[in-house]
């Protein structure tokens, strides 16, 4: 079955284990020791949403999710991410038996992946695409670090279930969520949802700006050569922007991301799907987020426990505060869910 190499080590993050450990410790040390009235990790926070860019960009933001992550009861860890390397419809499973990190190898839970494969609803990741994909790999050093802090001995580390979640309709996301909800109900299962938020710039074909009293996407004109598409965004610019009459581009980006994050925190899968569809926000992990939200809704119906099952965002950052239309940025957000 083989081991998937840590293909992004040495470029997207430190390849030397000691240097990498120091880097992750530094990021984690920047996060407060308590959040929302709880000492970290948050008890029962066995689902997190975290970014997957190079660590120099998104590492400090991801630390907020990972320091909140409660792995104390984990016997297996699902890792859901989007596919950047090939077009994928639906969900795909790895065919490797191990994933390499600079710290050591994480074991794939073949019993669970085989069980999922038998449903007939999962394809196999092409091995070359699996190796090239960063959305899963970027979480594994952080996961190792938190497992080390939680369990100490690598022989006690739970196995992982890497899943790529590709393009899907709202109903298809609900279907995947329902299928995976039985695993989410298991208190010994933890989840990592990999996603960056708004990708702004010509390279991403997404450039919403404030113009003529509305937020307009210059790169999505719906076939109108002379007009940009108006997005359904109506914030109170008096609080959302330093200059309400002329919001900066980075302020527009923040408003778009806040709409998406508010929809996630609502706990409504349909609301999140609607907001992303209408604003066309380039949330690259929107389908993994959609699947876990659909699964959380199934669990919430069965349990109806107050204060559980809804994501809580604890950090939001951007790679750059865009002011000019030729510039670009990627947004990062971290959240946890008590299940």
UniProtKB/TrEMBL annotation:
CDD domains: MEMO_like (cd07361). Belongs to the MEMO1 family. This is Uncharacterized protein. Pfam families: Memo. InterPro entries: MEMO1_fam.
